[in-house]
Design a protein that fits this description.
GO terms for molecular function: heat shock protein binding. Pfam families: HTH_DNAJC9 (PF23302). One of its GO terms (cellular component) is nucleus. InterPro entries: HTH_DNAJC9 (IPR056453), J_domain-containing_protein (IPR052594). The protein has about 200 residues and is an all-alpha fold. Among the domains are: about 45 residues, no CATH class; about 70 residues, no CATH class. The protein is about 70% helix and about 0% strand. The chain contains twelve helices and no strands. It is elongated, with a radius of gyration of 26 Å. The relative contact order is 0.09.
Length: about 200
């Protein structure tokens, strides 16, 4: 998030962008990069998505023309392989399979789709295997959700904040390694410092 924010700050500031275009370096001391803006809050406002937004979209998507087009495209793309179709159509789980299967069968009957062997002759064993796999994945997802402490309207915000902190920690570790290896120049615009030394 910090890196993305710095890139945005450089590209959105005319002077910083001109400097970067001309020299390939940035002025780490510039006001645009030193501001106290809460970048996490800024990006969340820019791309504000809530659990309710996703649920609303799922309701609109199911049984829509868009979903039907996606199901047909997946059927053709994966030659009737229901494992791949169920993995690639948005907003579906194994409870949707009878509905998805009925959509495909209707399109085959009307001549809109070809009859692929993988679909019309799929064994019950393969269907049950798919169902068991998906149920297992759902249990694992629920366990992970509980471990992350998610549950409610602010799920996405909590997850974004957690991932942001993880990335910040990883970046700090990486910068600390660079600093230990190359000295203080690595952390504070090594290229710029090197350029200044060459001029003097």
């Amino acid at each position: 998030l910090q890196v993305l924010s710095k890139v945005y700050a450089v590209l959105s500031d005319a002077n910083q962008r001109a400097l970067y275009d001309e020299t390939g370096t940035v002025d780490e001391e510039a006001e645009a990069l030193q501001g106290d803006r809460d970048w996490l809050e800024y990006w969340q406002l820019l791309f504000k998505v809530t659990v309710k937004d996703i649920e609303d979209y799922q309701r609109r998507y199911k049984d829509s023309e868009e979903e039907l087009a996606d199901v047909k495209a997946a059927y053709l793309n994966f030659k009737g392989d229901m494992d791949r179709i169920m993995e690639n159509v948005m907003c579906v789980d194994y409870t949707d399979e009878p509905r998805i299967r009925a959509m495909i069968e209707q399109a085959i009957d009307s001549g809109e789709l070809p009859s692929f062997k993988a679909f019309v002759r799929e064994s019950k064993q393969k269907m049950m295997s798919r169902r068991r796999r998906v149920e297992k994945e759902a249990k694992e997802a629920k366990k992970t959700k509980e471990e992350l402490g998610l549950g409610g309207e602010n799920d996405l915000q909590a997850l974004i904040q957690r991932r942001s902190k993880d990335r910040e920690r990883e970046m700090d570790d990486f910068l600390a390694q660079l600093e230990a290896k190359y000295g203080n120049n690595a952390k504070k615009g090594g290229k710029k410092t090197a350029a200044k030394k060459r001029k003097t």
